[in-house]
Amino acid sequence: SVDFSTFTKQTGHTSLDYGFVNTASTKSAITYIDGDQGILRYRGYPIEQLAQHSTYLEVAWLLIYGELPTADELAGWDEKIRRHTLLHEDLKHFFSALPHTAHPMSVLSAATAALSTYYEGQSDPHNPEHVELNTIRMLAKLPVIAAYAHKKSIGHAFLYPDNSLSFVDNFLKLNFGNNAEPYEINPVMSRALERLLILHEDHEQNASTSTVRLVGSTGANQFSSISAGINALYGPLHGGANEAVLDMLARIRDSGESVQRFVERVKNKEDGVKLMGFGHRVYKNYDPRAKLVKESADEVLRELGVEDPLLALANELEEIALNDDYFKERRLYPNVDFYTGVIYKAMGFPTRMFTPLFAIGRLPGWLAHWREMQNDPQTKIGRPQQLYTGATERDYPVSR
Ligand code: ACO
Question: Is Transferase tagged as a keyword (predicted)?
């Protein structure tokens, strides 16, 4: 095998590559993407098959350990994750110190970083038992934290996790249940959310995963690395796009502006306005996840009995953009986030919870990449070069 790091050092060249458009930062065996063909596979399995047949936790195991689990392995892992859902009671007080207006993504990243304070002495990146335990802790506790961020924002009491429920049903209950009455699981909602989470589980070296790897490369523990990844995901050009799409659709509806006029403003780059949920660094023909989400959107809204004019608006926007030369020439197509918001909204999630939902979805991928990086003997601290463009040497003016 080629030692790429030695090779780079020997050539003595530095390449300037804004946005790492052409630069690989690592080798990875987790996820395969062919952006021209619209192919996405986790550990070799096509995303379409996993979304149809698998579950969030099964795919999480696949990403992290490389193979599908046996029935016993999956049952044992599911059981362990259920047993780790409780948060330390003191951590619950952490939420009261934050304003109810706090964005749930800020709460999620802060609480994830705070989690590590409860596991001092148990977070050594080089101790396989610690790594295993903290993988399970994060898969179990981050959904609870996200749900508490939601409850806090609407002034509702937190619920204890219900460990008799599956991962997804527990999450739905934590978000939408209350302490006064039993919570009835809606199977349509449950399956739709499971599917959306699976579609988000990994996407190779995207901005947040690269952040997790970069932070992890310094020897930082899993909690610190994942917390950094959550912050990277928060941005509107990355995970924050799902929230931005709904805001954009609502603004178009409320302004009374025609969709065509909005598209013209995007094309003229007026005030830097973009068609959120369109375009992707890697997919230049179509995003296979977007295709699956779009299929779900119609179906889920119909089955939940929700009529949302924003879905019609999204369809109109897509139709106009796909037939417009500006978007065709730049190969801009709907990405995974274009239709997810419409589904999350139909389920009852407020807009600000959309990106935390993405974070819960992406968590297994972050964990898998963090672990792959730790186990790769070629890993070294991430430290890009720069091309210096500042002043040449000059003397400090002593007589100033
Ligand atoms: N609306 C309008 N124009 C766009 C859009 C868009 N959504 N995306 C790209 N363009 C234009 C750019 O202005 C640029 O035009 P130019 O050549 O006239 O200057 C051209 O298309 C190329 O775009 P880049 O920004 O160079 O493409 P890049 O690969 O760097 O960016 C990105 C990809 C960030 C996803 C971009 O398409 C974007 O901002 N999309 C909107 C935000 C979004 O939906 N993000 C979610 C991405 S998916 C995810 O993270 C899960």
Answer: yes
